[in-house]
Each structure stands twice: as C-alpha cells, then as structure tokens.
Structure to design on (372 residues):
C-alpha cells in the first residue's frame, strides 16, 4: 500500500487515508468527469472550473509534505498511482489535464531545491495556481526520453533552450512548464519555464485522443533561462541529477500505466452489462463463446496490467530500483490498452463506432498510451 517507505512487502491493502481518497476520487470521476467527457472532447479543453474543482479535493496538497506546507505525512507513489487510475476511469483526457499540475508539483517536491520549493509550492497548495504542466515528449518518430533533441546550452548567466515539445497538456493555459532538455556533456535534465519567456511559442495540437487535456506544442527558439531554472539547481548537474531524471521518467511510465488501467476498467464495466442485455437471435450475445472469451481476455489482461502497475509503484515507495518494473509497465500497458480499446469497440459492433456510446472515445484515449 505504500504506507511505510521502509517496508519491503508487496501489500495490496490500502490505508484508511488511501481508501477515503479513493472513494472521493471515484465519486468525482463518476459525478463530474464522466458527464463532462464528451463535451470536453468536442471542445478540446477541460470544462470551465474543472481544474479548480479537482484542486478542492486536496490531491495536490496531499502530494506536498507537511514540512513544505502541504498536508501529506509522507508522499506515496502508490497513492498517486491510485489517483491516476481513478481519474482515468472517469475520462483519460480530463485525467491527463488534472494530473499535469500535480506532476509538476511532484517534480518540485522530489527534486527541486529549497528556493524552487519555497517560490512555487505555496501557490499550488493554497489553490491559487492550478495550471502547470510537464513537457518531455518530442514530435519525431521513435522518441526516446533518454536521447532528447531539445538542447540546453550553457550561456552567460544560464542556459539557452532550443527544440520542440509535443502532446503537452494544458499548453495554452499553463503558467509554468517543466521542460526536459539535454545539457551537452551532462545529459537530460528538467527546467522550469515561465510561459512569458522570450522565444517560447505555444500552439494547439489537437490529436486523435486526449483532446480534453487541451494538448499543445511548445517551440523553444533560444529561450534564455537563468541557472535557477534548472530543477534541483547546481545539484542537478551531478550524477544524482541524472538519476533524478530517470526516476521522473519511470514515475511517468507508471502513471500512464495507471491511467491505462483506469480507462480499461471503464471499458470492462461497460461491455459486461451491454453484452448481457444485447439480444441477437433470441439470446444475449454474451452467450456466444466468441463474445464471452473476448470479455474474459479483457479482464485477464487488465488484471495483469494492474499488478504490474501496483508492483512498480510499491517498489518506488520501498525505495527499491523500479527501472525494470516501469519498463514492463510501459511495454504491457501500451500494447494491451490498445487491444482492450479495439475489443471494446468490437464487442459493441456498430454501436462501438458511433458517438451515442462512449466506447469510441475510450478507444481513442487508449491508443494514446502507446504514444505517450
């Protein structure tokens, strides 16, 4: 459950705090996100007040330790994995939007220096700031987060950032961006950018899925930032800075796996009653082996995805190396999420192709897991 950072046991039981949070988030997903999903997808943005409503749940405050002004006795990767799963069960696009500022806060908490934490965290904890995001993905084939094309070259007083970032949530509204860039002879690192920085251009990038996250592209044309923009400050230039960047990528993979689990669970929850109620040739279509076996396969693959995600998050909380587990999460969830989305559409037949049902929306979202 991640209740003890020193525990080495793989324990699937939740703490009372985690269970209360899960109950709250599931209500939010069902009452707020599900009803808003279709219109948000059509508009290509979260509904007005959505980020503020999510902020009022306290999930961001629970991501910040009490010592830094938050409400968490200890920050748990398992707890944050549960948040990602439950939000995506409501809608993956809106989940990506809600998790963008939370991911920014997580990075500042985990790897920011004292000045960065004191300057940035209070506004998020108090709810004054709700729009921030992370920009790692780049718009070229076979993108590898360990081989960035966006560069950060040292210059007088700081760095010059050049490159492009793709599929950035809340790109048009975020005040702060956490941008991954390669420092020559040092390696990939994360930089904190203000949206008003000279040389930074933001444009819309509507995609097949995740449209409700208000996706955008960043173009960095010699964006000059001070040394203080480097997440972690001078310490980030040392070997532990490389380890921090890798840890950030591992956690991102686990988060996308958790969202794949949540969205896939929504598919399973929908196809079971649909196939039991849909009558063809005088009996429910679930009586057909081809249908029953396909639903069973969804449930089996979903449980495999869930166990890998939970184990990776548990290892992070236990302060064990999670690189292998995070990669397995990425590999399995990218493959099986797309398969589950495809099979969900197949089980509904023609109804899976039209917008009267949410399946085509979930299909488009689940395709994004392999890209992200």
């Amino acid at each position: 459950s991640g209740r003890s950072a020193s525990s080495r046991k793989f324990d699937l039981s939740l703490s009372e705090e985690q269970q209360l949070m899960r109950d709250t988030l599931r209500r939010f997903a069902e009452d707020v996100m599900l009803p808003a999903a279709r219109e948000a997808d059509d508009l290509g943005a979260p509904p007005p007040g959505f980020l503020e409503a999510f902020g009022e749940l306290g999930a961001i405050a629970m991501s910040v330790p009490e010592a830094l002004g938050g409400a968490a006795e200890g920050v748990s990767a398992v707890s944050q994995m549960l948040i990602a799963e439950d939000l995506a069960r409501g809608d993956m696009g809106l989940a990506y939007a809600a998790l963008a500022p939370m991911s920014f806060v997580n990075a500042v908490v985990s790897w920011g220096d004292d000045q960065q934490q004191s300057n940035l965290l209070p506004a998020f904890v108090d709810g004054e700031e709700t729009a921030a995001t992370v920009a790692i993905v780049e718009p070229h084939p076979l993108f590898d987060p360990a081989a960035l094309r966006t560069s950060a070259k040292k210059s007088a007083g700081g760095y010059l950032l050049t490159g492009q970032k793709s599929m950035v949530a809340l790109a048009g509204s975020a005040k702060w961006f956490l941008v991954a860039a390669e420092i020559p002879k040092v390696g990939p690192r994360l930089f904190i950018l203000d949206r008003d920085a000279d040389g930074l251009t933001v444009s819309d990038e509507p995609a097949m899925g995740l449209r409700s996250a208000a996706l955008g592209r960043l173009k960095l044309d010699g964006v000059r930032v001070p040394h203080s923009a480097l997440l972690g400050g001078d310490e980030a230039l040392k070997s532990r800075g490389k380890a921090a960047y890798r840890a950030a990528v591992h956690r991102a993979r686990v988060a996308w796996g958790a969202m794949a689990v949540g969205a896939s669970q929504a598919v399973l929850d929908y196809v079971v009653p649909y196939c039991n109620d849909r009558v063809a040739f005088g009996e429910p279509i679930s009586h057909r082996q081809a249908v029953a076996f396909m639903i069973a396969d969804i449930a089996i693959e979903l449980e495999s995805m869930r166990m890998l995600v939970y184990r990776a998050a548990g290892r992070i909380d236990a302060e064990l190396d999670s690189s292998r587990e995070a990669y397995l999460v990425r590999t399995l969830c990218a493959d099986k999420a797309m398969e589950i989305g495809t099979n969900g559409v197949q089980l509904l037949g023609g109804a899976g192709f039209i917008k009267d049902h949410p399946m085509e929306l979930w299909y488009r979202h689940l395709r994004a897991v392999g890209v992200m």
User: Anything to note?
Assistant: The first strand starts at residue 132 and ends at 135. Confidence is low (pLDDT under 50) at residues 1-5.
